[in-house]
């Protein structure tokens, strides 16, 4: 489905491009600005993939250093942010491979699971269900829930829904086809929804009996 | 429209990438199907919760330490 995009902004450079150009010509403070702008995101992506804090710290450093080394290779036809995310994803996967020597780590494996394809838990949620938990409890629930997703689904969900990349950018970053990204995103969203329902569903009255899973 | 057909278009509906015609069809289905309405609303909520809560916080001191380490290596030419 194609939509007509406004051409506005064609002549305007994204502010990141100017910073990249300054950094390329030796202005380290311009690169400092880029690091400050994106360090949280890179750290978060690394945490989601490696699920280990120390690894995420190392990945964050390695990703920025690699980006700095490779600035000359940045083409400028994609956003600097998506280019950086691709480096962060690759560094994270490399880190995982090191940890699990001999075990294949890949995001393009076809995840054979029917879970979440058809919603089973159809109970509605309480209004503002997150308010029933403290911030710490909620963060724990969200972490535990997303960590349980197959890796290939988790990365797609994180890039697309948490980090705000488009379907095309996610596909390009992960080396997946657009239909593959779409299918994984749907299943990731539905599986997360299903799993969160355990915590967020509207409480039934004691009389109602339901089958506990 | 069946629930399976609705589900196949759920993401497009959430991401606002359906035509007006398809949207009208999806909305017609929603009016008569509580299950799909719950699925749509709770899936939207799932995305919104993950988007608005930082689950892997980068504490300021750690952030500064990592930032300083990156920049010191960049200044040395990596």
List the helices and strands and how they pair.
The complex is a heterodimer of chains A (213) and B (78).
Chain A: H1 15-24, H2 28-50, H3 53-69, H4 80-99, H5 135-147, H6 151-162, H7 167-174, H8 178-200
Helix pairs in contact in A: 1-2, 2-3, 2-4, 3-4, 4-7, 5-8, 6-8, 7-8
Chain B: H1 3-8, H2 10-14, H3 20-32, H4 34-52, H5 60-75
Verbal overview:
The complex is a heterodimer of chains A (213) and B (78). Chain A is built from 8 helices and no strands. Chain A has helices at 15-24, 28-50, 53-69, 80-99, 135-147, 151-162, 167-174, 178-200. In chain A, helix 6 packs across helix 8 (178-200). Chain B is 76% helix and 0% strand. Chain B is elongated. The relative contact order of chain B is 0.10. The longest helix of chain B has 19 residues, at 34-52. The chains are: A mainly alpha (213), B mainly alpha (78).
Question: Gist?
Answer:
The complex is a heterodimer of chains A (213) and B (78). With 213 residues, chain A is mostly helical. Chain A is built from eight helices and no strands.
| Percentage of residues in strands of chain B | under 5%
The number of helical elements of chain B comes to 5
Rg of chain B, Å, rounded: 22 Å
Based on DSSP secondary structure assignment, what is the total number of beta strands of chain A?
A: 0
Low-confidence stretches of chain A at least 5 residues in length (pLDDT < 50)? 208-213
The CA-CA distance between the termini of chain B, in Å, is 59 Å
Number of helices of chain A: 8
Largest protein-protein interface: A-B, 46 and 35 residues
**What order do the helices and strands of chain B follow?**
HHHHH
| N-C termini distance of chain A | 40 Å
Number of strands of chain B: 0
Q: How large is the radius of gyration of chain A? A: 20 Å
> What's the shape of chain B?
elongated
Strand content of chain A: under 5%
Main sheet record of chain B: none
| Tally of separate domains of chain B | 1
Helix content of chain B: over 70%
Mean pLDDT of chain B: 92
Category by helix and strand content of chain B: mainly alpha
Instruction: Tell the overall outline of chain A.
Output: elongated
């Amino acid at each position: 489905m194609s939509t007509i995009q406004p051409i506005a902004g064609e002549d305007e450079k994204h502010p990141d491009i100017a910073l990249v150009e300054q950094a390329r010509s030796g202005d380290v403070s311009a690169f400092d600005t880029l690091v400050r702008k994106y360090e949280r995101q890179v750290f978060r992506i690394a945490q989601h993939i490696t699920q280990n804090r120390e690894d995420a710290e190392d990945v964050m450093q390695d990703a920025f250093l690699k980006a700095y080394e490779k600035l000359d290779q940045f083409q400028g036809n994609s956003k600097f942010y998506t280019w950086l995310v691709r480096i962060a994803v690759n560094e994270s996967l490399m880190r995982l491979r090191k940890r699990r020597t001999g075990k294949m780590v890949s995001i393009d494996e076809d995840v054979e699971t029917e879970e979440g394809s058809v919603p089973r838990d159809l109970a509605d949620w309480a209004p503002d269900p997150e308010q029933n938990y403290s911030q710490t409890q909620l963060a724990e629930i969200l972490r535990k829930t997303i960590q349980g997703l197959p890796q290939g689904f988790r990365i797609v969900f994180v890039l697309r829904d948490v980090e705000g990349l488009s379907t095309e950018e996610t596909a390009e970053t992960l080396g997946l086809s657009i239909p593959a990204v779409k299918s994984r995103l749907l299943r990731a969203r539905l599986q997360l929804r299903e799993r969160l329902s355990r915590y967020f569903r509207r409480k039934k009255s004691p009389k109602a009996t339901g089958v506990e899973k | 429209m069946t629930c399976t057909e609705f589900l196949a278009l759920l993401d497009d509906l959430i991401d606002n990438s359906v035509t007006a015609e398809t949207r009208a069809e999806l909305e017609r289905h929603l009016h008569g199907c509580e299950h799909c309405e719950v699925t749509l609303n709770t899936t939207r909520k799932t995305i919104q919760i993950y988007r608005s809560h930082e689950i892997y916080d980068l504490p300021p001191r750690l952030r500064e330490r990592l930032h300083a380490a990156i920049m010191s290596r960049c200044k040395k030419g990596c």
